[in-house]
Amino acid sequence: MLIHPWDRPVSDQEWREVLLRFDFGQLIAPGGADREVPVVVPTHFLYDGDALLELHLARPNPVWAALAERPVALFTVVADYVYVPAAVNAAPTSDPTVGVPTSYYATVQARADVEVVDDPEAKADLLTRQLAHFEPAGSRRQPVSTSVESDRRQLSGIRGLRLTIRDIQAKFKYGGNKDVEHRLDIAQALAARGGPMDDAARRRLLERTAPASS
């Protein structure tokens, strides 16, 4: 991934916040040298705020074969992405009709070592914590337990994964190479458009603009 100096996270907390807030991404398992393409699995996950991602997947998932060949993975999350039209992205002194459009987005790519979790008690603990994170308050009657027959049946059909992060590449592409006045103009255009993620992208643009304008 190309990361310009102006697109780098301002601190580790910036990329950690993405993994904490946006709990859905893609698990990419390259597998062995003979595999033509990697296995890519969209999935929810838990992040501990430090270096651990956890998730579970169904036993028939083809990712298990790739992880058996090579127990490493890349986990990717993309957040707050928008299309910036050519006229908006064009420099204020240039002809907007010949402007070049761009995309704004935040992305985190975590390279990780993989541990498969098959112990029933460990899987029950993982599912209990996932339910606590994702389910509305009060929706689950009790923790997942191997002593409950319905839970035990469900647990046999899944495997857990622990991903220990070894390296992070993060990119926050929000016009950091433009002057402050132009970035503020782009922020105003996003506010006026009001698309699905325009407010979130505008917030990130302004957060990264504030230090440069002080």
Features:
214 residues; alpha+beta; Pnp Oxidase, Chain A; seven-stranded antiparallel sheet; 7 helices; elongated
Give a structural overview:
The chain has a seven-stranded antiparallel sheet. It is 34% helix and 31% strand. The two termini are 31 Å apart. Helix 6 (180-193) packs antiparallel against helix 7. It has a single domain, classed as Electron Transport, Fmn-binding Protein, Chain A (Pnp Oxidase, Chain A, Roll), CATH 2.30.110.10. By secondary structure, the protein is α+β, with helices and mostly antiparallel strands.
Helix/strand-derived class?
A: alpha+beta
Number of beta strands: 7
Major sheet, described briefly?
A: 7 strands, antiparallel
When the domains are counted, the total is 1
The CATH topology name reads: Pnp Oxidase, Chain A
Mean pLDDT: 94
Percent in strands: 25-35%
CATH top-level class? Mainly Beta
Q: Spatial order of the strands in the main sheet?
A: 2-1-5-6-7-4-3
Count of alpha and pi helical runs: 7
> Radius of gyration in whole Å, from Cα?
21 Å
Helices and strands in order, then pairings?
Elements: H1 12-21, E1 24-29, E2 39-44, E3 46-47, E4 52-58, H2 63-69, E5 72-84, H3 86-89, E6 102-117, H4 120-134, H5 149-155, E7 158-173, H6 180-193, H7 198-213
Antiparallel strand pairs: 1-2, 1-5, 3-4, 4-7, 5-6, 6-7
